Amino acid sequence: MAGDPLQTRLCEEYGCEVPIVAFAHTRDVIVAVTNAGGIGILGGTGMAPDKLRSEIAWIRERVGDRPFGVDLLVPASFVEGNREDLESMIPQEHRDFVESLHTDNDIPKPKPIQAQGASISSPNLLQGAREALDVLLEERVPIFASGLGSPAFVLEEAHEVGTKVWGLVGLPRQARRQVEAGVDVIVAQGYDSGGHSGTVGTFTLVPEVVEMAEGTDTLVLAAGGVSNGKHLAGALAMGAAGVWTGTIWLATHESETQMFIKQRLVEAQAEDAVQSRATSGKPIRQLRSKWSDAWKADGAPEPLQMPLQGMLVGEVQRGIREARMEDWMTTPAGQSVVGVHEMKPAAEVVFDMVEEAQDHFEQLTGEPVGA
Ligand SMILES: Cc1cc2nc3c(=O)[nH]c(=O)nc-3n(C[C@H](O)[C@H](O)[C@H](O)COP(=O)(O)O)c2cc1C
């Protein structure tokens, strides 16, 4: 039997059994995927430090020494300043537009919020990310993954406590900087991916980043559009050490995503996952909704930069959620949503993907794989 193509350097170096990484905001998904042999990465942006600490402890209790991580958004381009200065940068035209969203669509004003961690709609996102990062390092979480900016600044500090540093990139030049800095894993995230996404497709980006990382200690994961075993096999064939996935976990049994959104995910086609800057100021691929449509309609202003856009729309979005205006509610989701056919346990998603990838390799090579 030929060597098992699913046993990649990711498996060797991190001790996972299969090269599948799951990004999710629900801790139960992280535990399920990690215990099924993959690696779960918890989305930690927006969590207050104490909450993050208790989530890490909860996960650790259930996965033991298996590898898991936490992802934080640390954007590189960000308008900085105190809340007052930033508020004064929001044009009246934008405030009027948001006010008209409230009045024209009966979106109620939300209740005042309690203290929470810095989210993509807060002016202190960077400070919040730094506080959360301190928690990760104190807790010696096995993996810190950085969405948006380069995590090079924390490499030394993280390695001292045994935390591996991963960076998400959407462009070859971002990847080059991170390879040069010695980041442990680069997640090459294509245009089709859910959440913040760039302009270069996965099929174009991944081989280019793999070439850049050749001969270095940096591993590359493919992200964006991955929903089945053929994608996994394709990613490995392109030289990636595994796949990083987001959308496929949203409709799993363990996911805390609301049921009507899960249903919408099951029914959605690839083209229903649209990019919009309306929520954070950076392009987020998400399920199309009245929210994304409103910002693309004639007369709508161009969304502002991060964090101004998030500050502008934070309240109206809370109003939408509190009133549970389903047509206006959405979730980040990638074109891979077309591969979400049913709600099932997260472990089953892992096993199905592995089985399909093995079958695919067997068909290609005529040799048995794994077993
Ligand atoms: C609901 C959702 C929320 C996301 N939030 C983040 C985030 O907070 N930080 C981050 O680095 N990536 C985030 N992403 C992007 C994922 O990490 C991942 O790169 C992406 O989902 C991969 O593409 P796929 O959705 O086609 O699998 C999010 C994705 C989804 C679907």
What's the topology here?
Layout (H helix, E strand, L loop, with lengths): L8 H6 L5 E5 L2 H9 L3 E5 L5 H15 L4 E7 L8 H6 L3 H14 L19 H14 L4 E6 L6 H6 L3 E6 L2 H10 L3 E5 L5 E2 L5 H12 L5 E5 L5 H9 L4 E4 L13 H9 L5 E4 L7 E4 L2 H5 L13 H15 L23 H20 L6
Parallel strand pairs: 1-2, 1-9, 2-3, 3-4, 4-5, 5-6, 6-8, 8-9
Antiparallel strand pairs: 7-11, 10-11
Helix pairs in contact: 2-3, 3-6, 8-9, 10-14
Bound molecules: flavin mononucleotide.
Helicity range: 40-55%
Q: What is the CA-CA span between the terminal residues?
A: 10 Å
Kindly identify the CATH topology.
Answer: TIM Barrel
Cα Rg: 20 Å
Q: Which regions have little confidence, pLDDT < 50, spanning 5+ residues?
A: none
